[in-house]
Design brief:
The structure is a single chain. The protein has about 190 residues and is α/β, with parallel strands linked by helices. The protein has two domains: about 100 residues, FAD/NAD(P)-binding domain, CATH 3.50.50; about 60 residues, no CATH class. The chain contains five helices and twelve strands. Strands 8-2-1-12 form a four-stranded parallel beta sheet. Strand 5 and strand 6 form a beta hairpin. The chain starts with 7 loop residues before the first strand and ends in an 8-residue tail after the last helix. The chain binds flavin-adenine dinucleotide (FAD). Flavin-adenine dinucleotide (FAD) binds next to helix 1, strand 3 and strand 9. InterPro entries: FAD-bd, FAD-dep_Monooxygenase_BioMet, FAD/NAD-bd_sf. It comes from Nesterenkonia alkaliphila. One of its GO terms (molecular function) is monooxygenase activity. Pfam families: FAD_binding_3 (PF01494). Keywords: Monooxygenase, Oxidoreductase.
């Protein structure tokens, strides 16, 4: 697939994975558009553990400040039985690989939305099909909008809306988007 003079990336899905991908692409010089089917960018759920790898990734996109401001340093980490005894305990190293923060998902999502603020952020638009293109042809993302369908050309498509082949594919991109995964699938837990 060719990459045009001003490379354009389309990220399908504006969850944690999609916004993190968008923030990274922006910093790498890509014109980036995030297409989200919901009417607004939002997140559900409770807290999540932000591991040392995650912290490096947040650092790389300039979103690591949110951890100190809004996260909670976890120490020690591990798994306890109901009676408080330890099944498994991770050794604590302040600067090591087991350093972990707990953070509310909405706050992480907001921090990533800030980091991706320079992207073209589109809501209320559902990606229904992706033509992955070829060696001399851009990919085309077909999007359902309130005003009909749009065709969005792209040099790179990042599928971050969960797809059938992803281990965590419980919702989001359906069968017709299988080609998105061949282009690139960034959904957490994807294979
Ligand atoms: C109720 C619930 C609670 C959870 N709690 C936790 C937790 O506490 N900790 C934890 O680590 N994990 C939790 N998870 C797992 C959770 O799925 C992941 O942690 C995380 O949200 C995955 O982020 P994501 O960006 O990959 O996917 P998502 O958050 O699912 O984001 C995908 C986005 O893509 C959009 N999308 C999908 N298809 C299309 C399309 N065709 N066109 C346009 N947009 C599309 C969706 O609307 C969505 O906004 C929970 C899951 C659920 C359902």
């Amino acid at each position: 697939m060719p990459v045009s003079a001003e490379p354009r990336a389309v990220v399908v899905g504006g969850g944690i994975a999609g916004l993190a991908a968008a923030a990274s692409l922006l910093r790498a010089g890509w014109h980036t558009r995030v297409i989200e089917q919901a009417s607004s960018f939002s997140e559900v759920g409770a807290g999540l553990g932000v591991t040392a790898n995650d912290q490096r990734a947040l650092d790389a996109i300039g979103a690591d400040g949110a951890l100190e401001r809004e996260g909670q340093r976890i120490r020690p980490a591990g798994t306890q039985f109901m009676d408080g005894s330890w099944l498994m305990k991770l050794p604590y190293h302040a600067a090591g690989t087991t350093r972990m923060y707990g953070m509310h998902r909405q706050r992480l999502h907001t921090a990533l939305l800030d980091a991706a603020a320079e992207a073209e952020l589109s809501t209320g638009m559902r990606v229904v099909r992706i033509d992955p293109g070829g060696t001399d042809q851009q990919a085309v993302v077909l999007v359902d909008t309130a005003n009909g369908q749009q065709r969005v050309p792209a040099d790179l498509v990042v599928g971050a809306g969960h797809c059938p082949r992803c281990r965590t594919g419980h919702r989001g991109i359906r069968d017709e988007l299988g080609s998105a995964c061949r282009v690139r699938c960034s959904a957490s837990g994807s294979r």
